[in-house]
Amino acid sequence: MEFLSWFEITLRVLTQLAPVWVALIVTFVLSIKYKRKLGLYGKLFDSTIGIIGFAIVMFWVFTGTFAGLFDMILTHDPLGQVSGMKNKVPGIPLRGAEDGDYPYYLFGGDNLARDVFSRMIAGSTIVIVIAPLATVFAFMVGITLGLPAGYFGGRLDIGLSFLANLILAFPVILLFYLLVTPEIRLTGLPQYMAVVLFSFPLIFTTVLINSRYYILPKQRNSLLAISLFVLGMLYVSLINETGSKITLFNKIDLFDVDAGLLTVFVSVVFVNSPTVFRIVRGLAMDIKTRDYVAAAQTRGEGPWYIMLWEILPNARGPLIVDFCLRIGYTTILLGTLGFFGLGLAPEDPNWGATINEGRKLLSIYPHPALVPSIALLSLVLGLNLLADGLREESLKD
Amino acid sequence: MGLFILKRFGVMLMTALCLTFIVFFLTNLYPNLEKLAKSEGNFRMSDEEVASYLGNNGYLRPLPMKYGEWLGVWPGYVITGSDGKTRARCATIDIPVDQAPTFCGVLQGQWGFSNVFKADVSDIVSTRLGLTGKLMFWVMVLMVPSALIIGVLAGMKEGSKLDRSLSSFAITTTATPEYVSGVILITVFASSAFGLKWFKGTATQAADAATFENFFLPVLTIALYGMGYIARMTRASMAEVMTAQYIRTARLKGVSFRNVVIKHALRNALIAPFTVIMLQFPWLLNGVVIVETLFNYKGVGWTLVAAAGNNDIELLLGISVVSVMVVLITQLISDIGYVYLNPRISVN
Predict the structure, then answer these.
(1) A383 CA: distance to closest CA in chain B (Å)
(2) Predicted pLDDT at A274
C-alpha cells in the first residue's frame, strides 16, 4: 500500500465528514429560507461574520453529535492501539489491515500508536457536550445571584461582590490544581460543591414559575410540581454516586457521571460563574433605573417578578453574546485542564490532554499535537465570530 | 482619594487573608497531607506511619491554629513526637529547638520551607519572580505597543478594509489559547518538520542568558493572546471617539485626518485600553503558567505547577499571596489611573 498524498488525505477527510456536510447544508438552506420568521437567529444570516462563525460552530456540533451518538465519522477506535503505527506521519496505510478496517491513519498515529484523526473527532464530542452545559450552569448561578445583587444593592451586593472578586482574584490554574486532583476527590469536596452549584437551576426555575403564576395557585402548583420533579430527579442523579461521599439517593439514581468528569464540570462552572455574576449585576443595575421598571413597581409587581420578567428579558442581548463568548472560554478552560493532565483519565481523547501528550515530541513529530490544536482554535474562533455577528445584529434593533 | 486608597487596601488585605485561608484549607485536607507524608517519607508507608509522621510534624492540629502559626499570630508548635524526638516549627538546622523563637510566620518575615525544592520559600519566590518579571517585561514591551497600534489603525476608519483585516487578526489571537499558539509556533519555527529552525523550542537557558533565539517564542506566545483583546478594546474606544462631535468639528475646520487622529482622538481613545491593560494582568498570569510549562522556563508559573503537583503547602501559599497581590494591586492602579486620565469620573 502506498502513502497518501496531501491531496488524497484532504479528499478522504472530506468524504469521511460527508454526514456533517449534509447536515450543514440542510441547516443552512432551511434557516435562510425562513430567516425572516426566526427572530435574532434569522437575522444572524444577514451578517457575513455571523454566517462564518455559525458554520464553524455547527460543523463541530454536528461532528461531535454524529461521532458521539451514531459512531459515524470515526475511522478507528480512539483508544485502540495498532502495533507499528507509533508516531507515523499523516496518510500512512494501516499495518495489517483486515477487511472492514479503514485502511489508513488519515492524520497519522500518536506516541501510543492511536489514530490522531479519530481522537480529534472523539474529542469534539466531549467539548460540545460539556462546554455549553457548564456555561448554562454558570449562567444559572450568575443570574440567580446577580439579579438580586444588582436590583436590591446594599449589603447583599457588597457580600456577593466580595465573594465574586475573591474567586476572580484566584489564579485559575492554582484553583484547578487545588480542586481537580484525585486526593481532593477522595474528600468528596467536588461533590459538595456540585450539591450547591447544581441547586441553582432548581432555585431559578422555582422562582421563575412562582413569580409568574403567583396569582394562579393551582396552575403554579402543578407547573412547579412537574418541573421540580424532572429537575429534582436529574439533580439527585447528578450529585449521587455509589461508592462516594453522597449515597443517600442510591435507589432513585438514574445515571452515574464519571467522578473525574463531574469534578472538571464543577470547577469550570465555579470559575465561570463570578464573571457572569458581574455582568448580570451590572446589567440589572443599569436596567432598574429605566421607566418601565418604575412603572412595574408602581403597578405593585413583586421584586422577583420585576427581576425575572422585566429586567432579564431586556438584558438578553448582551447575555446571549456573552453566552457564545463564554462557551469559547469554557472550551479554553477545558483544554487548560487537559493540558495540565487534570481531571479526566489520561487516555481520554479530549483535546487539551492530547495536546499535552503530543507536545513532548513536538520538535520531531508535530502532528499529534497540531491536529487537536487547530480543532480547538477553530471551534473557539467560530464561537467568537458567532458572538460578533450576534452583537452586530442585536445592536441593529 | 486617601480614604479611597485606604479602603481598597483594607479590602485587599481581607481578600488576601480569605484566599490564603482557602488555599490553606484545601492543601491541609487529609488526603493531601497523606500524599505529602508519602512523598517526604516513602510511598510504601502504612496508614499508621503516615499518621505518626503527620502528628510528629504538627500537621494534625486544628486548622485555625496551623493557619495562625503560618501567619505568625499563634506560637509555633513544640511537639515531642512518638519517636521521642522533639520538633519545633521555628527550629531550623542552625537554631536548635530550645532556642527557637515563639513566633515564626509571615508577619515575622518567615515564609516557611519548601518541601520540593528544599529551600526557603522567600528565596525561591523572589528568584522565580525575578525570572517571571523578565518574561512579563518583554511581553509588555511587545504586546502593548503592537496592540495599541493595531487597535488605533482599525478604529480610525470603522468598516474599512484595514479595519476588517486587523479585526480578524485580533479576533483570531483572542481565540487562540497559549497552549495552542505555543504548539503552532514551536511546530512552525522550531521543529524539524518545517525546517525553519529559527528559534529554540525551549527557554530553559533563557533564565541565565536570554537571547532573541531562545526567548522570543515564549514572549510572543503570551503576548499574542493578550494582544487581540487589548486591540479590540482600543478599536472600540477609538471608533467611538471618532464619531464624537469635536472630531467632526476639527475635520470641518480643515484639520488633516492625520492630525485629527494623532492630536485630537488618540488621547481620549487611550483611556479605556489603559484599564484593560491593567486588568489583563490576571489573565497574563494564567498564560505565564502555561507558557513556562510549555517552554520549560523556570519562573513562578513553572514553580506553581511543581508545587501544586507535590502539595508543597508553604510554597503554594507563598505563590498565591504573590499572585493575589499582583492581581489586586493592578486593579488598584487601574482604578486610580482611570480617575487621573478621565477627569469626568471621581472616586466618590
Answers:
(1) 9
(2) 93
